[in-house]
Amino acid sequence: MSENKEDMLLLERIRAGDRSGCDECVRRHAPGIYRLALRLTRNEAEAEDVMQETFLSAFKGIDRFDGRAELRTWLYRIAYNAAMMRLRRTRRDHVPLDEASEPDDGTPVPQELYDWSQVPERELEKTELRAHMEKAIGDLPGRLRTVFVMRELEDLSTEDTAQALGISAEAVKTRLHRARLWLRERLAGYFASDSRGTRR
Amino acid sequence: MAHQNCRDLLDGLSDYLDGEASAELCAEIRRHMADCTKCRVVVDTLGKTVKLYRELPKAEMTEETRERLYKVLDLSDFLRK
User: Fold this and answer.
1) What chain B residue is nearest to A46 in terms of C-alpha separation?
2) Nearest residue, CB atoms, A55 vs list B45, B46, B69
3) What is the ipTM, given to two decimal places?
4) From CA B14, how far away is CA A62, in angstroms rounded?
5) pLDDT digit string (tens) for A45-95?
6) Structural domain boundaries of chain A?
7) How many H helices and E strands in chain A?
8) Cβ contact (<8 Å) for A48 and B65?
9) What residue of A is the nearest CA neighbor of B6?
10) Among candidates B34, B29, B55, B39, which has minimal Cα distance to A181?
């Protein structure tokens, strides 16, 4: 049975007041919702709060879910909104992740052209490199990061990401591409510094 | 990435790497890369970047976090099942 079909059956159970349906929904979707919230808030306690708010809000408003989006997409949208509200409330100095908050800088033109594509696999598996990549993802400009996390780390389709964020599919594709170029630049800088022995 | 042609092709690189670019664009990018070392480096390292982040381990919530979620949702009785 397709995931979508399973979710529709699950939805019927939750609407009928079947608590085991709620349990199954949480088991299926909480890990992804938690990871998304963690990427957006970058704080474990806040991610936990966002996850709790997401499921409380979803179960309370389950009758408002019209089935046009997938259940998972709907949950991601609730989680995204909950994270945005929290960030606006708690961090006055925070750079917002949502629309209208950042200028459109266009496609970043690659500057660092050090060729690290032939670096041996064992070098790429190093913890230090992974930590650098995690840091780079955390540093992505907000509106690029949200799309990047949904599309690439949580594997939502372009259309589902667009639905969850209320933007066009074309905007999702553009932002994902820019996020990739942005991360490439950071990694190229990392390897270039490494080759010159100047990495800090 | 100094030439106009390099910049024109830049926007299509994700589609190219994802296998979603048209045959025409693929051919144009390959043709360009054969002559432009800088673009070849960008394409190769961009592809490697994608591979690297897709291999990152996924964060997991702790058992305590899961228990608190179930408690908030009044589903704690399902934790033991």
Assistant:
1) B65
2) B69
3) 0.91
4) 37
5) 999 999 999 999 999 999 999 888 899 999 999 999 999 999 888 865 455
6) 3-90, 121-196
7) 9, 0
8) yes
9) A109
10) B39
Q: Token digits for A111?
A: 């500057």
Residues of chain A with C-beta less than 8 angstroms from the C-beta of B57: 130
Name the amino acid, one letter, at A111: Q
Q: Is A82 helix (H, G, I), strand (E, B) or coil?
A: helix
Q: What CATH architecture applies to the domain A121-196? A: Orthogonal Bundle (1.10)
Q: Do B42 and A109 touch (CB under 8 A)?
A: no
Q: What angle (nearest 5°) sits at the alpha carbon of residue A160, between those of residues A97 and A171?
A: 55
Q: What percent of the residues of chain B are helix, what percent strand, and what percent coil, each to the nearest 5?
A: 70, 0, 30
Dump pLDDT digits (tens) for B22-59.
999 999 999 999 999 999 999 999 999 999 999 999 99
Structural domain total, chain B: 1
What CATH topology corresponds to A3-90? Rna Polymerase Sigma Factor; Chain: A (1.10.1740)
Say what the pTM is. Answer: 0.89
